[in-house]
Amino acid sequence: MTKNNEGKLVDKSRIVPVAIIFVVLCGLSFYMGVIFGSENDRFVSIISQRSLDPPKESTSPKELSSPKDLSSISSLQIKYISFPECTIDYQDYTPCTDPRRWKKYGSYRLNLLERHCPPVFERKECLVPPPDGYKPPIRWPKSRDECWYRNVPYDWINKQKSNQHWLKKEGEKFFFPGGGTMFPNGVGKYVDLMEDLIPEMKDGTIRTAIDTGCGVASWGGDLLDRGILTVSLAPRDNHQAQVQFALERGIPAILGVLATHRLPFPSNSFDMAHCSRCLIPWTDFGGVSLLEIHRILRPGGFWVLSGPPINYERRWRGWNTTIKEQKSNYEKLQGLLTSLCFKLHNKKGDIAVWQKSPDNDCYNKLTKDTYPPKCDDSLDSDSAWYTPIRTCLVVPNPKFKNLGLTSISKWPERLRVAPERISKVYHGSDSTFKRDDDKWKKHVVHYKKLIPELGTDKIRNVMDMNTVYGGFAAALIDDPVWVMNVVSSYGANTLPVIYDRGLIGTFHDWCEAFSTYPRTYDLLHLAGLFTAESHRCEMKYVLLEMDRILRPGGYAIIRESSYFFDGITTIAKGMRWECRKEDTDQGGDMEKILICKKKLWYSSNKDSR
């Protein structure tokens, strides 16, 4: 007890707790205000929807022109915004790999070529325009051999690589002769030789592949006819739009680079990896690039290398080097591969093939003094979203006996077999896998009634923006499409299941831009994405990103809770999309389908924005 200025006794022991309680209550009041405060243009958590009155039954499908069309359903309301056009110099805008921002990052280990997304206050809220003279893409399979010049108007790569037969410009088109730096006589003969070295390419054993430093993806394009689905990977660099050329041709591709972070794929996924004179420094920096290839390659999988230092005895003069230097490089490479439990499988001419250990016997023999050391359990081997590459060896989990290339079912049988790794998924089982497969078969039948072009040559490049087991892609397997399956980096890790089925995909966070160029997909599909991500991602930016990557004339299938439809429709209208609401194949009011089509328009805005 002490006296105050008036001489009265004051109990300080009571003042302090009261002051603490006052501060806590103020902080809690501010926090609750942020949580429950609302902004018209932001998501509202789906949790709040549970307190809404049940929606009334809707009438037949109709065109949606304004939020008033859903006046009978309690739903998210957003103020209409007419989004302006970006300037024409943003026609090839890739927000997270933007050359305008490279100077902010160092060139050490190519860090500047990795993903560096702009902060919220730098995000563009405008519509990315097509190049002047843009035309609807040439249809598959003709598109594999030619595309419109005005759709990808880049001359540098044509001038630099025409002598290697990557592509050539004739009139209004680019043509792709199928050549490459290491296969100037055509990719077909190159792959024929590869099949002689790897017979497993012919019988369905090898289904998924990755091509690092893919050029214009001629290797991946050729493999499509051989039943092998390839992810063609290349950074946005001085080669100008390698990935955009690939996607314009209708070949699966994604922006990416082997640098400081893991590639956005789970461990033990690809049956084969390939590098044709990709000039990746495989033995530098502790061998991190090769360690990453080892991580994503399935046990028993093959790594194919052509170009330096392979066949250095004959080729060294053309590489501006010495035979001594190239011999040393080859020996370093072979030594590193041996330490990673790879064995030289076959070699002929300019092609060398190594095979990853099909079991754990080799890894079990490695001592503590071996370099690189085996990774500990502190980091999930499947963690691959902004995850640094570690200079350690990821050993396959011995728990999974059917993970290896010789154990997993051959294609196409593996598509319908519940993979062993489904047991890693919460509530994952053979029965949930089959139910998911059957469900999507029915959904896709219904989708084809809503979009007759689906299943024809008018739709080629497809993305499932938030898949679970790849059921949507599996239901389209007999159609002339390929599907990029996207699994949320913040959700359940089901991507290993997708790769074990013989499909392809990537991790991604839809609060950020996707690793691709504008106008690269014919169809975007999502099911409950906004329901799942409403607490993290702002609807406006997700839809603007969808607009960026969707081709003019392309479709979006938005399967979502009815609560979000007014908001989605309002934003879509501001992006110049035409949308209509449809019932699901099961009917009911809680979930509906929005079919949207992106219009073709040309830039009228030449000023900087």
Automatic annotation (TrEMBL):
Keyword terms: Glycoprotein, Membrane, Methyltransferase, Signal-anchor, Transferase, Transmembrane, Transmembrane helix
Glycoprotein as UniProt keyword: yes
SUPFAM superfamilies associated with the record: S-adenosyl-L-methionine-dependent methyltransferases (SSF53335)
GO cellular component labels: endosome; membrane; trans-Golgi network
Stretches that traverse the bilayer: 15-36
PANTHER family: METHYLTRANSFERASE (PTHR10108:SF1084), SAM-DEPENDENT METHYLTRANSFERASE (PTHR10108)
Protein name: Methyltransferase
